[in-house]
Amino acid sequence: MSDFLRGLRQGSENGRYVVWDHNRFDGMPSLVVFDPGWWRSRNRLTGEAAGRGAAYFLAGSDSRSWVLRHNRRGGVLARLNHDRFLWTGAQRARSLVETRLLAEMRAEGLPVPAPVAALAHRQGAFYRGDVITECIEKAEPLADRLMQHKLQPAKWRELGQVIANFHQRGIDHADLNARNVLIDDQSLFYLIDFDKARRRRPGDWCLSNLSRLKRSLDKFVEQDATFSFSHREWTDLQRGYGTGASSASADSA
Asked: Pseudo-torsion of CA 95, 102, 5, 7, nearest 10°?
């Protein structure tokens, strides 16, 4: 078992179901750890990112930067119920599932954030969830990078290979978009926000992931004509994806 999986602990108390990295906490984290106001009151809330998937940037207890996200609903249902989910057991709670999956992916060497802690707070038939991960230092969303700079063809092919690597391991990212792909100051790619992600046998969902990413990139082009993306860049990404998928198939043969 890898260090990433060995480091995870889980516990429950009074409707709180928590998974955490025991190297960062002495025991099960309390509810306040998942409250942005608690961090703000201690001057350790260092930034916020707006939107449905709002993120809070924290000065973590291990001298590293952390990111706190509250599980939220999208679509029409969000108008009536923006953050409550039906409780069907701790093994299915979205926040806890995501954190366990992150630990597995880190163990496999995939470029994802390190898990810190997750909470599923049950109240009757429903629960609310939160996830804390380690921040990818000196990284920005692909969407922000493309607002300012072009990526070279080789980098688009590399991104395609990265996505293919996730798919070959059966990782279905439920919301692969230009903001959930990060690129750091060394031009290395990472995928983030694995809420509702799951492992599946490779199939048509792989193309659905790619189509979702392309729709996201196309939308940015519609909003800003200077956004550095076109059919040429997408062709390069597809070439890299094909190369990555072929290499993985050859390795498993």
From this structure: -70
Instruction: State both tokens at 1.
Output: 């078992």
pTM exceeds 0.85: yes
pLDDT digits (tens, 9 = 90+) for 10-44: 999 999 999 999 999 999 999 999 999 999 999 99
DSSP per residue, 82-125: SS-EE---TTT-HHHHHHHHHHHHHHTT-S-PPEEEEEEEEETT
Residues of the domain holding 190:
139-252
Beta bridge partners of 121: 16, 128
Give the chain's length: 253
CA 29/CA 196 separation, integer angstroms: 23
Name the catalytic one among 35, 83, 144, 175: 175
Q: Is 175 a catalytic residue?
A: yes
- Report the domain count for the chain: 2
